[in-house]
Design brief:
- By secondary structure, the protein is of the alpha/beta class.
- It has helices at residues 9-13, 34-43, 83-94, 115-132, 156-166, 210-215, 247-255, 278-295, and strands spanning 2-5, 48-54, 97-102, 138-140, 171-174, 180-182, 197-198, 222-223, 226-231, 262-267, 304-307, 342-360, 369-377, 383-389, 396-415, 423-427.
- It folds into two domains: 2-295, TIM Barrel (Alpha-Beta Barrel); 299-427, Jelly Rolls, CATH 2.60.120.
- It is built from eight helices and 16 strands.
- The protein is elongated.
- The two termini are 20 Å apart.
Length: 465
């Protein structure tokens, strides 16, 4: 999970879409504390923070040499006078990864609309950001451009080349990759089928089929995992009249993003004081406590694990079914080759009650599983289906009505190659109501002012969990 931080002049003008004409002096946080932002992220289980260094209004949160529309024009004196530096220093000290969002759409810069001049300008600002602040792990950008805006061509290939040159360890996000792709909505909800595999040749920034973005492609040639962006509040920027989502709603989003092989990018906007609001912190604390309560105890840890087959010598533990109870993706169960039955039997010493299944694949070996299901042994001694799913990937979570049993069977029905399972978890979630469906996002769009058009070449068979 990563924390998105939308912060800028919009925070002080109570707006979502800046015009690029606000007086930069309105940006005047009286108590900015980037260390607080980092601590909130760490304490809530987020490993990365991504800052909107420049949003669509063009206002820069660092003293850019390329524009007068930045913090250097502001009377704000708290901290260093450079928000990006404040956050970079805090993240480094706190052991949290740093990502940066530099919006291509700039409603302030006079060069915007002049293709060569603006692309040079953008590359200059990107160079500042990627050479002044240490290691950057993600560069977040989009093809946003408002309806009726000046015609503008973005030289994405040149941008990507520069980013990879200056920060070779950084992943680049856009709705078409190249390294991380947009899931296709701003609801924080992935498709119930979600491949990290993707064909970049079938995608175009600003005009990618949203169904394809959400589901990926089992025949894709590129590894481009999906990222689910959503805001904890109705808007992306902080507004005094808005309140955050509940912890239970965030848990629902967790199941439908992280639990569907995606990264959850949750926007938590700092307020006009320069702090994350206490009501947001309270929700995040509750969200963290709920997750810990559910997932800190894997009921399967006390079970015996048998497999329909195991690769290699029976005394060789490298591929043992017991590996699925060890944390991490670098140990795993592998069935014997040339088999058609792929099953794990989980036998408990007593009857357990549970309603969550967790599966992980060792993704360094590729994403393989196409379809699977979980059975329980009922009172009549017959196997009965508990739940079923499609893709697994790095992490798959399925929530269902509570089941009581002492015997389970995890079955891989279809796989691109011999299936490999690195982790299996059985949990009890007493907080969620099975069948609850997240409301789709209907607020302002960070990826552009118009909905991306959906082509008809692909169909979705997805259904809610």
């Amino acid at each position: 999970m990563a924390l998105f931080l939308h912060f800028g002049t919009n925070t002080f003008t109570d707006s979502e879409w800046g015009t690029g004409h606000a007086n930069p002096k309105v940006f005047n946080p009286t108590a900015l504390n980037a260390t607080q932002w980092v601590n909130v992220a760490k304490n809530s289980g987020f490993s990365r923070v991504i800052l909107t260094t420049k949003h669509h209004d063009g206002f820069c949160l660092w003293p850019s040499e390329y524009t007068d529309y930045s913090v250097k024009s502001s009377p704000w004196k708290n901290g260093t006078g450079d928000v990006v530096k404040d956050l970079a220093d805090a993240a480094r000290i706190g052991g949290v990864q740093l990502g940066l969002y530099l919006s291509p759409w700039d409603r302030h810069e006079p060069f915007y609309g002049k293709t060569l001049e603006y692309n040079e300008y953008y590359l200059g600002q990107m160079t500042e950001l990627l050479t002044r602040y240490g290691e950057i792990t993600e560069v977040w950008l989009d093809g946003a451009k408002g309806e009726g805006e000046k015609d503008m061509e973005y030289f994405f290939d040149d941008w990507f080349s520069l980013i990879h040159q200056l920060q070779p360890g950084a992943v680049i996000f856009s709705d078409a990759g190249p390294d991380v792709r947009w899931v296709g909505d701003e609801a924080g909800v992935a498709g119930t089928t979600c491949w990290s595999l993707f064909n970049q040749s079938d995608a175009k920034i600003g005009d990618t089929d949203r169904v394809y973005s959400g589901e990926g492609d089992p025949f894709g040639h590129d590894w481009v995992p999906a990222e689910c962006d959503v805001s904890i509040r109705p808007g992306w920027f902080w507004h005094p009249s808005e309140v955050p989502k509940s912890a239970i709603t965030l848990l629902d989003l967790y199941y439908k993003s992280v639990g569907r092989n995606c990264l959850l990018l949750l926007n938590v906007p700092p307020n006009s004081s320069g702090l994350i609001s206490q009501e947001d912190i309270q929700v995040l604390q509750e969200f963290s406590e709920i997750r810990s309560s559910i997932f800190s105890h894997n009921l399967a840890k006390g079970a015996s694990i048998l497999a329909s087959s195991t690769r290699g010598n029976p005394n060789d533990s490298r591929y043992s079914p017991h590996n699925v109870l060890e944390d991490g993706i670098y140990s795993y169960w592998a069935p014997d080759e040339a088999q058609s039955d792929w099953m794990l039997y989980i036998n408990f010493q007593e009857v357990i009650t549970f309603n969550v299944l967790l599966l992980q694949e060792p993704i360094q070996m590729g994403q393989r599983i196409i379809q699977f299901h979980l059975d329980f042994l009922n009172e009549d001694g017959e196997w009965e289906v508990v739940t079923s799913g499609t893709t697994v990937g790095y992490k798959r979570l399925l929530l269902f009505s509570s089941v009581k049993t002492s015997h389970l069977r995890a079955v891989v029905d279809k796989s691109r190659a011999d299936p490999l399972i690195s982790y299996l978890g059985i949990y009890m979630d007493p907080f969620s109501i099975f069948g609850h469906v997240s409301k789709l996002w209907s607020g302002p769009r960070v990826n552009g002012s118009e909905l991306l058009q959906q082509t008809t070449g692909r169909n979705s068979n997805s259904s809610d969990m």
